[in-house]
Each structure stands twice: as C-alpha cells, then as structure tokens.
UniProtKB/TrEMBL annotation:
Residues 1-29 form the signal peptide. The keyword Signal applies. This is Tripartite tricarboxylate transporter substrate binding protein. It comes from the Bacteria.
C-alpha cells in the first residue's frame, strides 16, 4: 500500500506543474481586448434618447476598459445604414451595433433585406430601457388620455403624430393604441426624434409618442403634458400619469429599449467582455444617476437574458405588424 501511495504521490507531483501551466494557458487564452478604440455605431439620431443613453453608457465603459469608445450616428434605412456600417468593418471586436426594436421589425417589413440580422449579428446585452410617453402640447385641448381617445373616435384620421423610424417602439406603441383602442391617427415620418417633440410644442403635430429621455427637455420646460406612459408601473417622477395598461390597453403598454449587438463572427470571449463591461457600467452611480434623471434605466443584462427578451418582443411585434398591416 505504501508503494502505491508513493507512486500516486509521484504522479500528482509530476502533474502539478502541468495543471499550473494549464491554468496559465487558460488565462492567456482570453483575447487581450481592447488594445485600441472601439466603435459603437447606432442608427439613432443625435440628441435623442438612444443617442444620449449610448454616449453616457459608453463613457462609463471607456473608463472601465481603459480605451476610447467612439459612438457614431449613422441614421437612415430604419437602422440598416448603421447595421451595414458595422458589417463593413472587420469582425474583430472593434465595432458593435447599438439598435432597438428595428432589429426585429425591419425583417418583417422588407422582402429583400441587405442585412440578415438573425445570421449576421449576435445579441450582447440589453443596454437600457426607457418608458414611452403619450404627450401633447401644454395648451392642447386634451387634458386626459380618455379625452384624446374620445376625440380620435369621433374624428378618425384627424390626429397627427410623428415617428422617427418605422417599426421602432414608439411606432409599435402608437399602432397598438390604434389597433386595440379602435382609433385612427395619421403618422408623419421624421428623421430624428427630437424634431417630433419640437413640432408637438409648435403645433405642427397633435401628439407625440416618445420615450421619456427624448422628451425630457420639453418636460423640464413645462411645454408638454403627459397623458399616459408605456411601462410596467407608473413613473416615480410622474405618479399621476397612468400607464397604458391601467387605461385598458395592456398590449400597447411597452417601454422602449436599446441593446448592443456584435457581428456574428466576433470572438465569443470579446462578446463576453463587452457584456461584462456594460453590466458594470450599469452599476456606475454617475452614469446610472445621469440617465435616471432623464427617465432612462440602465440594464446591462446577461446575453441569455437579452436573447429571452428579444424572443418575447418577437411575438409582440409580429402580432402588431400583421394586424395593423404596417409596411415601409
């Protein structure tokens, strides 16, 4: 027995350096990243909620990863311009796409897509969520959501609202309000969301369906009135404003969101490092508080959580797109 023990001990002693070496090799296997600036390309226009959230989040990520995170706006094509810009760059972990619901909706609306989101991209993390608002100018005739809907039912096609992207969350919420509320609005397309807020205040539009972050300057200036919000609960800063769910429209009661996607060929360990950095940024008090003050909640979900989130949204948008007959 003692001989066996000595033999086993000798094997263990010989194996120990190999285990240690294996541990060192495992640690070295993770790609040294980033060693230079990383591009974050978004289809959201400058100054909107998505743009602000991306810049604040990636300022924090830059400090965490010790490399510049360069946010670039490439508007147009329902975020396809941004997606194509990312795919045109090397798929080496130095270019990511920040996108929203267009990632799921656009393929339902276009037959000949220049980008195959399902194959060309992989989810990384849900970066943020921001509640939607149903807002009118401060001097609007409608003081409540019910008054707005009563007018819309009596005057189909008279209420004008704007969207900055077909198939974005604001558009889906507006279409769901019409579909399930039995009303008809007129949709006017805009290039960027802040222009919608401006034109509601100026009287060119009757109604805005925008996330809280985009509308914050007008709210702070007391130029708009919130009639409803799209969110799980009422907002802390606006406790008297009901959710669309409370108002009898649960299928329209959605918050906006933004997520990070990587080209499909991006190395898995780099995707994991980016997810971890965004999750850490979401817990950075300065970044969290800055966005929370504008109605934006930092999330930093795991990749698996984000995949489940996207799968749930897929069912929502397919129903609304089909029933409302949305098209580009």
């Amino acid at each position: 027995m003692s001989t066996i023990r000595r033999r086993d001990a000798l094997k263990m002693a010989l194996a120990a350096p190999m285990v240690l070496a294996g541990g060192r090799l495992g640690a070295q296997a993770q790609t040294a990243w980033p060693t230079r600036p990383v591009q974050i390309i978004t289809g959201f226009g400058p100054g909107g909620g998505g743009d602000i959230a991306t810049r604040v989040t990636y300022q924090a990520v830059s400090e965490i990863l010790k490399q510049p995170m360069v946010v670039e706006n490439r508007t147009g094509g329902n975020s396809l311009v941004a997606a194509q810009a990312v795919l045109a760059l090397p798929h080496d972990g130095y270019a990511f796409l920040m996108n929203g619901l267009q990632q799921l909706v656009t393929p339902l609306l276009m037959k000949d897509m220049p980008v195959n989101y399902a194959k060309d991209f992989q989810p990384v993390t849900q970066m943020v969520k921001y509640p939607e608002t149903i807002a009118v100018a401060k001097d609007s005739q409608w003081k409540t959501f019910k008054e707005l809907m009563d007018y819309a039912k009596a005057n189909p096609g008279r209420i004008r609202y704007g969207t900055s992207g077909v198939g974005g969350v604001p558009h889906i919420v507006a279409e769901a309000i019409q579909l399930y509320g039995g009303v008809k609005f007129v949709n006017i397309s805009y290039r960027v969301a802040p222009e919608i807020a401006r034109d509601v205040v100026g009287g060119q539009l009757d109604l805005a369906v925008l996330n809280v972050s985009t509308l914050t300057p007008m709210i702070q200036a007391d130029k708009v009135r919130l009639l409803a919000v799209g969110n799980d609960t009422r907002l802390k800063d606006f406790p008297d404003v009901p959710t669309l769910g409370e108002l009898g429209l649960p299928k329209a009661n959605h918050a906006d969101w933004g997520g990070i996607f990587a080209p499909a060929a991006t190395p898995a360990d780099i995707v994991a490092q980016m997810q971890q950095a965004v999750a850490k940024a979401a817990k950075t008090p300065s970044a969290y508080d800055k966005l929370a003050g504008q109605g934006t909640l930092m999330v930093g979900s795991t990749t698996e959580e984000f995949k489940a989130f996207l799968a749930n949204w897929q069912g929502v948008v397919e129903e609304v797109v089909r029933e409302a007959k949305i098209s580009l």
